[in-house]
Design a protein that fits this description.
It is a single chain. By secondary structure, this protein is an alpha/beta fold. It has 4 domains: 214 residues, Alpha-Beta Complex (Spore Coat Polysaccharide Biosynthesis Protein SpsA, Chain A), CATH 3.90.550.10; 114 residues, no CATH class; 154 residues, Rossmann fold; 182 residues, Rossmann fold (3-Layer(aba) Sandwich), CATH 3.40.50. Helix content is 39%, strand content 15%. Strands 1, 2, 3, 4, 5, 6, 7, 8 and 9 form a 9-stranded mixed β-sheet that branches. Strands 12-11-10-13-14-15-16 form a 7-stranded parallel β-sheet, sandwiched between helices. Strands 19-18-17-20-21-22 form a 6-stranded parallel β-sheet, with helices on both faces. Helix 22 runs parallel beside helix 26.
Length: 742
Amino acid sequence: MALISFVVPVHRVQGYLRECLDSLLGQAFDDVEVIAVDDCSPDASPEILTGYAGRDPRVRLVRLTGNVGLGPARNVGLDRATGEYVWFVDGDDWLAPGCLPVVAERLRATRPDVLLVDHVRVHWNDSVTRSALRDVYPKPVGAETFRLRDRPEVVGLLHTAWNKVVRREFLVSLGLRFASGWYEDVSFSYPVLLAAERIGLLDRVCVNYRQRRTGAITRTPGDRHFDVFAQWERVFRFLADHPAARGAGELHPVLFERMVWHYLTVLGNGARIAPQVRAAFFDRIVADHERWRPPGGYRMPDGVEGIKHRLVATGRWRTFSALRGAHRTGLTVRRTARTARRRGAPVLLGAARLTRDAALLAGYRAELRRPVDPTLALYAAYWYRGYACNPAAIHAAARRLAPHVRGVWIVRRDRLDSLPPGLEYVVAGTAAYFRALGRARWLVNNVNFPDHVRKRPGTVHVQTHHGTPVKVMGLDQRRYPLGAPGMDFAALLRRVDRWDYSISSNSFSTQMWERAYPAAYTTLEVGYPRNDRLVNATADEIAEIRAGLGAGPGERVVLYAPTHREHLPGYHPPFDPHRLLDALGPAGRLLVRSHYFHDREPQGASGWPSDDPRVTDVSGYDPVEDLYLAADVLVTDYSSAMFDYAVLDRPIVVYAPDREAYRLARGVYFDVTEEPPGAVATTFAGLLDVFRSGTVDSAAATGDRQRFRARFCVWDDGHAAERVVRRVFLGEPGGDEPGDVR
């Protein structure tokens, strides 16, 4: 029997579940079991759970055939738990490193019925808020156990289940179950505290309580917030019906005050209770105030909170509503004043100097007042570098499947020569550019449009992305400031909020985009449109591309394409093209391609000049898909190129000489040297040996590639662009399975 059984209910937490499970299983204490309850989650969470259960015998997976909700899912886990203690942890939260040995030591030393642990709120913007423990207990709490009547102030701590480690036999003998509905923690936590003979407090942060930007109940408006009344009724019924709690009559006033506080907190959150039902919610508070008010009264809070309690007691909704409105107005005025002081006059003076830009933006705002053009789709890629990537593939498919849609591209003036003949375009920064931005119905990009772009009602923004993420992205970059110099994360989120669709190439990407870019967009997990060309290219087309690059039929072409190091400008990994050619032999040919960011550097140099005719710098060659088709082997490091190239099922070599430094400075979602698409080298000498020894083509490397393809390339069937066009431009359903096209 394990000391602790973790019960983890899982539903729509794919972006956070790995962090949760790793925090439970990766502690320096392994006397645990994890009961993971898949509450019929519609995302990739079941796939993640299957992987963990297959790798770690401490993980037991329970799959439900229908979605039952958080409370009943916890009950299922409780029924299967065998540990001495049960700890309910939500799938989007995670434990603090090193906390578990401390918790275990306290449990074994004091044998409490319930141990309360501290927590912090970790907000989506990476700020952290401490719990109320220090407010309730400004002095050290000590290790001794107690009953609730001895320390009734414990009621002032958060009423969640996940900050309580409960002795399983005590919980089973009590017969307590989680109720259905929202706010189910209320009718669990308070009865547990009321009935416990031995309560312990651990003044150590153990739980990171994630405050999600989207997807959390507290940010979901609706009538289900009225469930809170039924949950509190269960608390007072328990108080009356259980002998273990009946003797604690002095706790009635304490619980009553907490109930009113909780009701007012829910009502005061504008993201929960819609304006049209606030009066009805207030009436329910008044009714429960009359119903459960202690005969001897209760301690009225001081200040504004006390005024609110008195207004509830007298049922004065209009006065309560006016007080709330005045308070919110005051907050707005103070916030506006702070913003004005922070920005100051120089911003206005600077804008006045930029006369031309101001005029263009004024024209853009005028266009925003004109009707949306129902036929115009505006495309862009790589910060207006030209016709490329997923937007180009979608544009080509739309010309075929949705000919009524007029596609226009945005391009930088210095990249006009790269456009294919006959392509309709506007030059970035011109009046025509702003007219198109203001009128387009569809806006498709593989990066974000600039901050001055506004999301109009009736328009559709499609974010295609431009790679499966190895390195951390979006909000996750806050933890790696060296890789995100000068990034404005608040501005990033404002740009993300414009998205209607996020195109995902595979389940892994879907999970990472969800956590890196939390917003209300719809994910289209359909594969990357740009990879359709890799699937559909004919042998004759490939031969023609190779010939154009100077590669003969019998030559083995190796493409070396390292990624960019944001934290190390100008860095190039150790690489000698001549020595690699020696390892390849006389039939070897080498293509070297720098990251597209390097076109900002003089001449866009790859960093490995060579006068050998068998070495070609293809940094300026477009499209990159042609290079993939021409190459027999790809050598890369942390680049998303490996995911695209894997579609071709050809050898891939991971060359990562700065693996650890890159991981620490830039951050990665997974280690490509541990889960590689083929052979791995961490030194240049090792890279040479991969080719000289034949490891590049070994059975082990082939097996790694097949596993990699099964994980990341399932959607690459040659129809990704079609699925996007049918869903976005034509409004057709479907595309839910690979190969699902009309």
